[in-house]
């Protein structure tokens, strides 16, 4: 089976992990600081705060912006559950903004229309979480303009998008947002096994994030000088969301190859674009203001022109040994969210995209022969 995603682990990665295992630092050691500094430097952000996974990163990012009961958070319906659940963990309410039918990212036009209605109703969001679907940045300049006009904070969910470019900079530099979140799950571009990171430019935000990831606890020179070297103090309710030094060492090693990973994914995406050009489907649209890092390569099946619909195509590809997947079922269509009042048809662009979406295999070590096999199987199902 050719999977839709696969991590790439080198001998250098293994050696880096073994080095930590043979050291005195397995949990909180120097590799975490090194990983945070190197990711921040790569992206052009001032700070990175490493955590156990991207869900934890989204959760503490919301808390750092004082999201809580009475708050309202908006995100994209075309995303994994965590982008919305993070607000519910804080006791806030969640709503969604429909996607652009070309990029599948949050539509800036739909956001502005919804904001105008929300202002009239007196219920503006406190935080908006745009999601850089498949590795392509949202229209962050447009969203930042609206954030300034309507007074909300912005957390970029860049779980798919480390290594992506936008308006001359790297995604993660927080030029147009308050914070950015990355995921290092094994199917992502860079992995630490499980893991995530919050990027920020504010030292106050960094300090709050560090406190929230570790039980709300503070241990600094002023406190130990006053009480003794053992002293620590819990100043708010936090969590055990810490990344281990083992994971961070893997991340530092993987980071050395990040540009190589992204370059290969872009080559594969360009090759898919060429090979699929005559088939009845829509390939990913690239916004001219950025370049995707292609965590995913989603295609949209045009059922009106295809021999089979999405389900038959999906089943045929799986039967042919192609491990395709679907990203994503719109979050408001999940039973849990339907029980909270959302109804089918509220976000038509996300639903239309989901009805025809299939993610083709996309990973660093995918060979051209494997890619040819994917295209041949897809052609057989569609024509």
TrEMBL record:
<dbReference type="InterPro" id="IPR020026">
    <property type="entry name" value="PseC"/>
</dbReference>
<dbReference type="InterPro" id="IPR000653">
    <property type="entry name" value="DegT/StrS_aminotransferase"/>
</dbReference>
<dbReference type="InterPro" id="IPR015424">
    <property type="entry name" value="PyrdxlP-dep_Trfase"/>
</dbReference>
<keyword id="KW-0808">Transferase</keyword>
<keyword id="KW-0032">Aminotransferase</keyword>
<dbReference type="Pfam" id="PF01041">
    <property type="entry name" value="DegT_DnrJ_EryC1"/>
</dbReference>
<protein>
    <submittedName>
        <fullName>UDP-4-amino-4, 6-dideoxy-N-acetyl-beta-L-altrosamine transaminase</fullName>
        <ecNumber>2.6.1.92</ecNumber>
    </submittedName>
</protein>
<dbReference type="InterPro" id="IPR015422">
    <property type="entry name" value="PyrdxlP-dep_Trfase_small"/>
</dbReference>
<dbReference type="InterPro" id="IPR015421">
    <property type="entry name" value="PyrdxlP-dep_Trfase_major"/>
</dbReference>
<comment type="similarity">
    <text>Belongs to the DegT/DnrJ/EryC1 family.</text>
</comment>
<dbReference type="GO" id="GO:0008483">
    <property type="term" value="F:transaminase activity"/>
</dbReference>
<keyword id="KW-0663">Pyridoxal phosphate</keyword>
């Amino acid at each position: 089976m050719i999977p839709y995603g696969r991590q790439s682990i080198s001998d250098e990665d293994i050696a880096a992990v073994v080095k930590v295992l043979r050291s005195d630092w397995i949990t909180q050691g120097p590799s975490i600081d090194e990983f945070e500094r190197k990711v921040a430097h790569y992206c052009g952000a001032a700070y990175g705060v490493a955590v156990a996974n991207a869900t934890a990163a989204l959760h503490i990012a919301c808390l750092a912006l004082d999201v809580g009961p009475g708050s309202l958070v908006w995100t994209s319906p075309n995303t994994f559950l965590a982008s919305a659940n993070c607000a519910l963990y804080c006791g806030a309410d969640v709503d969604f903004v429909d996607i652009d039918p070309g990029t599948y990212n949050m539509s800036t036009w739909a956001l502005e229309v919804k904001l105008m209605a929300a202002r009239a109703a007196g219920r503006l969001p406190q935080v908006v979480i745009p999601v850089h679907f498949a590795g392509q940045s949202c229209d962050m300049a447009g969203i930042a303009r609206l954030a300034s006009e309507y007074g909300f904070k912005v957390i970029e969910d860049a779980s798919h998008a480390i290594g992506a470019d936008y308006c001359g900079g790297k995604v993660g530099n927080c030029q147009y947002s308050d914070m950015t979140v990355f995921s290092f799950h094994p199917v992502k571009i860079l992995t630490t096994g499980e893991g995530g990171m919050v990027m920020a430019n504010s030292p106050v935000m960094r300090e709050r994030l560090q406190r929230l990831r570790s039980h709300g606890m503070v241990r600094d020179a002023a406190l130990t000088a006053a009480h003794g070297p053992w002293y620590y103090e819990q100043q708010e309710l936090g969590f055990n969301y810490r990344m281990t030094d083992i994971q961070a060492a893997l991340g530092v090693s993987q980071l050395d190859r990040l540009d190589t990973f992204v370059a290969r994914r872009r080559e594969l995406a360009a090759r898919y674009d060429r090979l699929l050009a005559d088939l009845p489907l829509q390939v990913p649209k690239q916004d001219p203001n950025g370049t995707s890092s292609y965590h995913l390569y989603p295609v949209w099946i045009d059922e009106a022109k295809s021999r089979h619909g999405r389900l038959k195509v999906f089943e045929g590809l799986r039967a042919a040994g192609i491990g395709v997947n679907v990203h994503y079922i719109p979050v408001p269509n999940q039973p849990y969210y339907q029980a909270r009042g959302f109804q089918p048809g509220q976000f038509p662009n996300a639903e239309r995209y989901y009805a025809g979406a299939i993610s083709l295999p996309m990973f660093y070590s995918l060979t051209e022969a494997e890619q040819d096999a994917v295209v041949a199987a897809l052609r057989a199902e569609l024509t």
